[in-house]
Amino acid sequence: MGDLAALTCPNCGAALEAAGDQKEIKCGYCGTTVIVPQAASRQPVSIVIPIEPAAPIGSSSASRAIWLVPLIIVVSILGFVGFIISSVMSQVSQVTDSALKPFAEVLTSVPTIKTQLRATTAPEPTRAPRPTDRPQPTETPAPTATTVVLPTLPAYAKLVMRDDFSDPKSGWDRTTAHGNSMNYTDNGYLISIGGPGDGESAWVKDGLKDVSVEVDEEIQSGAGWYGVMCRVKDGVGGYSFEIDTDGDYGIFKYVFNANGNTSKELASGNVGPGLLNNEGLNHVRGDCIGKTLTLTVNGRVIDQGTDSSFSKGGVGLIAVAFSDSANGLDSLFKDFVVRSP
How far from chain centre, in Å, is Cα 176? Predict the structure, then answer.
């Protein structure tokens, strides 16, 4: 066996002993392999010192610190940029909200409007009322009288005739028959009807077309109708303008024939309260102008009728007792006047 050589472990410093012919020895403490110097063979001694593998670049604390600096800088820059962007976006959001607020209010109010419209167009159904056991009849209101104001007719300039009945030879009938009589008196011309429902008429002249006929009349006794006539002709007929002692009036067309006289009402009504003089004179006027027939009483135009059956004839007076007038009718006429346009 060769000579022992004293060695020291280069790693842990422990003492090593190796024979002279050993080329390597392993440390019993740390396990490091040590090359034994070759003194006996006089060869150079190679000492193998185990070296830990070099750590990769950047794996050491210093390298890691060096690489963290740019990373921190980048992160800081990104954070700062993010903060700036966040602030800008917040300001933009506030400005946008303020600008869009009116439109948002309009848009949010639209559903309410639509709801209201739907509620309006779809009303609740109406419940049918419960029928009453015995419905009361509804009174029909009386029609409201319509007052038609007719224009006042002029006093025509052309005087056809005038008679105050002072001359008994002026041409009027002087007859007495069937209880009736027509004659001149000291105060005018009197037509006297002796019983109810009977009547008489008298006329003068002939061939008169468009005329106005007027007279003053006074009731002496009884009750009935009285007035004036125009375009009247024996055996044919004529028009009359009459009022009665009750305040009624009528415009009539009379037809004379062999079987008796007939009449047709062309206009009628009531003259109204306060117009007639119950005691005293009433002025009656009838106008036959063309086919228009107009009645005027005490200066007020009362009504009009139209007819074209008779175009010309005489002018006259008429009196008819009521059918219920037991005393007949005595009608006194004064101041008879006929004019034409």
Answer: 71
**pTM greater than the 0.90 cutoff:** no
Which of 184, 204, 320 minimizes the C-alpha distance to 261? 320
Contact at 8 Å (CB) between 338 and 213?
A: yes
Q: Is 272 buried (19+), middle (13-18) or exposed (0-12) by CB count in 10 A?
A: middle
Cβ–Cβ < 8 Å for 218, 335? no
Q: Which pLDDT score is estimated for 132?
A: 34
Domain 158-340 has CATH 2.60.120.560: yes
Alpha-carbon span 261 to 276, nearest angstrom = 29
SS3 296: strand
CA distance 251 to 229: 10
Written as six digits, the tokens of 69 are 């600096």
Q: CB burial class (10 A; 0-12, 13-18, 19+) of residue 299?
A: exposed
Helix H or strand E encompassing 303: strand 300-306
Alpha-carbon distance of 306 to 243, in angstroms, equals 18
- Domain map (residue ranges) of the chain: 1-57, 158-340
Asked if residues 268 and 282 have their Cβ atoms less than 8 Å apart, the reply is no
Closest CA to 18 of 28, 4, 34: 4
Yes or no: say if 316 and 228 are a contact pair by the CB < 8 Å rule: yes
Distance of CA 152 to the CA centre of its chain: 41
Residue 116 DSSP label: H
What pLDDT sits at residue 186?
92
- List, run by run, the mean pLDDT of 10-residue segments along the chain (341 residues): 65 77 81 70 46 49 62 82 78 66 52 38 40 40 54 87 96 95 96 96 96 97 97 96 97 91 95 92 98 97 97 97 95 97 94
What confidence score (pLDDT) does residue 100 get? 60
- SS3 of 220, please? strand
Residues facing 260 on adjacent strands: 257
For residues 250 and 305, give the distance between their C-alpha atoms in angstroms, rounded to a whole number. Answer: 10
